[in-house]
Amino acid sequence: MKRPLLFLFLTFALSASVFAQDISPAEQRLRDTLRNTMLQLRTAQTERANLQADKIQNEAKIQQLESQVEGLNKKIVSLNKDAAAEQEVAKKNIDGLQVKSDAQEKQIAQLKEALEKWKAGYAEAVKIAKEREALRAKAVSKGVLAERKLAERERQNLELYETGSEVLERLQNFGLGTALTAREPFVGVTRVKLQNLVQDYGDRLRDSKYNPFLDEAAKPTVPTEITEEEKKNAAAVQVPQKP
Prior knowledge:
By secondary structure, the chain is an all-alpha fold. The protein has a domain at about 155-235. The chain contains 5 helices and no strands. The protein has helices at about 1-20, 25-175, 175-180, 190-205, 230-235. The protein is rod-shaped and about 210 Å long. The N and C termini lie far apart (about 190 Å). It comes from Prosthecobacter dejongeii. Keywords: Coiled coil, Signal.
């Protein structure tokens, strides 16, 4: 289409130059109109070419944008997959943390229970310690009293033993002549019987001596009553007075 128009334009220009002197005003207007039309045509063709170029450029841009959109869509799909995977991992982590939290809460409850038991045991231990301390103090007090009582009994025992030993010694040294001189009534008692009586009382005196280191069951039993025969012998024997 461009070539016929160009040929027509050239023909018109050549004719105009040849017949320029014989052109009427109507023809001149026609020529002007034709020239303007040709100029507009050229402008339209130029604009059309520009639009065609813009179209090609825009189509390239559209294709590029479509490619970018496709890439973005793929990226979005990948991100969605990654997000889903991360969400699954996060869910597993949360579940694991929940399990750990439950285990820790259970352990804390066990520790609290153990602490309460320890407190109760400690309170019981303190109570027992106080009771033992009270018993120890009581035992110490009883020990002091026992030591005092032991000392008193040892003193009394010593006095009793010394008195008994003195009586036995006098009886052992008390002969027949002394009895006649002193006019004692036990002269009728035979010597053997007197010696046996003295020996028996000596044994009893030694056995009845208090010993704090002997067991209660092992201590000798001191008779509380005197037999009739011993009463008669004791009545027959009077303790001599010191000269």
